[in-house]
Amino acid sequence: MRLLHTSDWHLGRSLHRASLAAAQEAFVDHLVAVVASESVDVVVVSGDVYDRAVPPLEAVELCSSAFSRLRAAGARVVVISGNHDSARRLGFGSSLIDASGVYLRTCFDTVEVPVVIDGVPFFAVPYLEPSAHGFSSHVSVLSDALTRVRAAAPPSSVLLAHCWVAGGEASESERDIAVGGVSRVPVSLLDGFGYGALGHLHGAQVLTDSLRYSGSPLAYSFSEAAQVKGCWLVELGGPVEFVAAPVPRRLSTVRGSLESLLCSAEFAGVERDWLSVTLTDPARPEQAMERLTARFPHVLVLSFEPAGVARSPVSYTSRVTGTDVEVAGTFVEHVRGTSVTASESALLAEAFEAVRVAR
After folding, report:
1. Bridge-based pairing state of the strands 115-117 and 120-125
2. Contact yes or no for 168/212 (Cβ under 8 A)
């Protein structure tokens, strides 16, 4: 049997202010093409199908289309809910939908009941919020679920689970699932199956020979810029191959003065990338974003870290004394790192006077 292990689609998500709808549609096209070209029998989706519990209509339509197209390409589909999904909404009508060859599994009470496809049992353990099921930690609720699963599962079984397993490396875009300061569970809880298809962490990674994260199909934060996105193509009892997904647009991080960013040939290779920019000018340049986007039209993040500027060790709150203009000038210095100029002081004085007159 051939599996395609994927997870963390996060349909409906954007990257800062950039829509990812077209990129997510392209990923679905890619997934369907892989199923057809590689004769995939089962696609497993290990949670976080949607980015939020009540997804936008466009995301629901894309999900419906994806499941229909994967079935038309010849694969059955097994899906669990993740911490971003609403288990009840995603699992609606699952007993009826089973007949189509798409199996939605979102319930804690039936984790020991497998989906059996061509004689292979698939045990689906969705994201389990400990308090919702009467437990105090992720370890305890997963231990209970996996104890029931192991009692019913032969060694060749496939396990789907959505959780953070110790040893897995996180990025900045996963939602925190810590309970009592603890979010990770030991590998031993989930290892030992024919194949363990994990979801939640957004980087593809191998924990053991049979326990893997597929990661998200797209980069959802700049911390994922260097990750190669894709899915695991699994021959049960045989080799496992990583299939890279299409890259809609690279993510890059650049740093420097505004002048160097606008003029240097060093940055020519990132002009079409989604960018996170850090400006190092001693003073915050005027109209920085407008000027940057003339060369880099896809700047998504702009931050300011002035180089060589010594910040005062005195706290801001201890410095807010004096006249209105002095306090405002101190605030500007605190934020910008440089003192106000004479013309700026005059402008501040004019503004305060206008406010007083308006009263």
Report:
1. antiparallel
2. no
CA separation for the pair 182, 239 (Å, rounded): 34
Domains of the chain plus CATH, in order, are 2-244 (3.60.21.10), 251-358 (no CATH)
Instruction: DSSP letter for 322, please.
Output: S
pLDDT in tens, 277-293: 999 999 989 999 999 99
pLDDT at 40 over 50: yes
What is the Cα–Cα distance from 161 to 149, expressed in whole angstroms? 12
| Model pLDDT, residue 43 | 98
Look at residue 161 and tell me whether its pLDDT is greater than 50: yes
Average pLDDT, integer, range 325-337: 81
Concatenating the DSSP letter of every residue in 93-109 gives: THHHHGGGTEEEE--ST
Angle between helices 342-358 and 324-336 (to 10 degrees): 130
Structure tokens at 174: 């996963």
Q: Are 339 and 347 in contact (CB under 8 A)?
A: no
